[in-house]
């Protein structure tokens, strides 16, 4: 092995260690485990102060990018002169912006203060969305959608990092389900808000078109919430406002069992390579792409799917709201049961199977069966449970700061590709049934079910291998391994969630 005398500097221990080591630099074992009462007290404080902000921002993340769907039946297409497949491209262009910055944005999340960098992007995306109220043609709309994608790209990987930073691995699925479930809440609020604006301005001459007002309201509100996020959200346990200095150390102590620490700001090439060579990275990526081809199509066309099933344009805005309730409830229940029974894949696949059933019904029921097709659409909204389960796997099963951000970036890049392809399956010539798109949705979700079981099998096999290592009489645990910024492959103490 090379030595310092041979001209190669030894590894810098400061670069190797996690930020959490600041709490335990003088302790060989990292201190004692917390008692149940202290742990429960801290969880309540963290939940009360962090979850409302995470949920609100993530709900706005969904509402702001799907405002286009509501606007599509409020006069947007005729007012700015969209023709041919230009509306489909507005759906896809958002994800081109997302795709362009996904990896750089993930690296910046690792390098710079997590909450401050996230807040900057939230404020900028709110301002960008408000600018959509001023667009006059396809070119202007496409430009705004592209930059909206650029600034929203930080949210999902950033929130996965927040979750892994503050919660134990048996708390993360439920918390991820809660904040991701606010997609559904946003769908309810967005549908009701769009309906109220459309109904309130119906038959009246207004100074501003109703759909423009919708973009202004949602964009400006996002800016306000982004400012609140900047002020209140902590970057990590060391600059949190709502914990005492003693509780800050305890908050780090309680997540020791994750074997992941709270983050390391230095890029490590070997972790980057490990991420690229890990089969699970690409199993995740396959799911993110295949699973979001349906998502990209449905989130941009759900108002038109409902309208084409025999409802008025205004009614389609309101009738989309129950779909949001289905999504929110299924995600919260799935997350809760996953943490309780430690069976994340099996539980989440139930929601995906329900979504697949809804897609099959949409593809088979005639347009005249309005109620049946509406119920089928609602069933499709249970499908995100599996996507969220894999997102929580990035929090719990992928360790090493550089590896985690790399896997998250690849996962979200594949997510972008799926969402770019999704709207293109809804071709104008197939309207109003969109049979090819509905068949594509069924095939994609079917393939995702298979992929989920492959992922579970792989992690289970890895756990068996790690158990053999730990049971070896000669095995010795690395002191403070949980704070050494080790990858999941390097650390035998990290047990994969299933």
What keyword list fits this structure?
498 residues; mainly alpha; Growth Hormone, Chain: A; 20 helices; 0% strand; disordered N terminus
Report on this structure:
With 498 residues, the chain is an all-alpha fold. It has one domain (35-237, 269-466, 477-483): Growth Hormone, Chain: A, CATH 1.20.1250. The protein is built from 20 helices and no strands. Helix 6 (114-131) packs antiparallel against helix 10 and helix 9 (172-200) runs antiparallel to helix 10.
Summarize it:
InterPro entries: MFS, MFS_dom, MFS_trans_sf. It comes from Massarina eburnea CBS 473.64. The chain contains 20 helices and no strands.
Give the topology.
Layout (H helix, E strand, L loop, with lengths): L12 H4 L4 H4 L11 H37 L3 H4 L6 H26 L2 H18 L6 H15 L2 H12 L5 H29 L9 H23 L12 H9 L15 H9 L1 H30 L4 H7 L1 H21 L2 H21 L5 H11 L3 H13 L4 H24 L10 H37 L27
């Amino acid at each position: 092995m090379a030595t310092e005398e041979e001209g190669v500097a030894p590894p810098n221990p400061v670069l190797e260690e996690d930020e959490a080591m600041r709490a335990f630099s003088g302790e060989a074992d990292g201190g004692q485990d917390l008692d149940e009462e202290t742990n429960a007290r801290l969880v309540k404080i963290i939940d009360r102060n962090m979850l409302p902000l995470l949920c609100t921002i993530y709900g706005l993340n969904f509402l702001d990018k799907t405002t286009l769907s509501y606007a599509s039946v409020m006069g947007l297409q005729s007012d700015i002169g969209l023709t041919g497949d230009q509306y489909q491209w507005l759906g896809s262009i958002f994800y081109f912006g997302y795709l362009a910055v996904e990896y750089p944005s993930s690296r910046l999340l690792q390098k710079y203060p997590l909450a401050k960098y996230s807040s900057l992007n939230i404020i900028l995306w709110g301002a960008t969305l408000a600018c959509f109220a001023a667009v006059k043609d396809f070119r202007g709309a496409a430009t705004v959608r592209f930059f909206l994608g650029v600034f929203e790209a930080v949210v999902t990987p950033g929130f996965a990092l927040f979750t892994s930073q503050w919660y134990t691995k048996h708390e993360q699925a439920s918390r991820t389900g809660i904040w991701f479930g606010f997609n559904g809440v946003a769908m309810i609020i967005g549908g009701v808000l769009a309906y109220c604006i459309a109904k309130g301005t119906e038959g009246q001459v207004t100074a501003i078109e109703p759909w423009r007002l919708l973009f202004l309201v949602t964009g400006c509100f996002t800016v306000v919430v982004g400012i609140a996020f900047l002020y209140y959200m902590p970057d990590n346990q060391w600059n949190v406002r709502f914990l005492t200095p003693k509780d800050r150390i305890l908050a780090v102590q309680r997540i020791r069992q994750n074997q992941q620490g709270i983050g390391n700001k230095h890029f490590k090439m070997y972790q980057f390579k490990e991420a690229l060579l890990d089969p699970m990275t690409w199993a995740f990526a396959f799911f993110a792409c295949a699973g979001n081809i349906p998502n990209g199509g449905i989130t941009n066309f759900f108002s038109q799917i409902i309208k084409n099933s025999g409802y008025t344009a205004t009614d389609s805005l309101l009738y989309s709201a129950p779909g949001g309730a289905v999504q929110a409830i299924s995600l919260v229940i799935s997350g809760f049961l996953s943490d309780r029974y430690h069976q994340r894949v099996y539980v989440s696949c139930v929601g995906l199977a329900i979504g697949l059933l809804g897609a099959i019904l949409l593809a088979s029921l005639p347009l005249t069966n309005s109620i049946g097709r509406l119920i089928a659409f609602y069933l499709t909204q249970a499908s995100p449970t599996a996507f969220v389960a894999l997102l929580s796997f990035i929090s719990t099963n992928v360790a090493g700061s550089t590896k985690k951000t790399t896997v998250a970036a690849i996962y979200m890049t594949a997510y972008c590709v799926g969402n770019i392809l999704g709207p293109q399956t809804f071709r104008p010539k197939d309207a109003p049934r969109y049979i090819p798109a509905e068949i594509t949705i069924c095939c994609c979700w079917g393939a995702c079910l298979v992929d989920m079981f492959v992922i579970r099998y792989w992690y289970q096999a890895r756990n068996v291998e790690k158990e053999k290592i730990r049971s070896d009489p000669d095995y010795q645990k690395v002191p403070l391994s949980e704070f050494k910024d080790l990858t999941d492959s390097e650390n035998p103490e990290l047990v994969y969630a299933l």
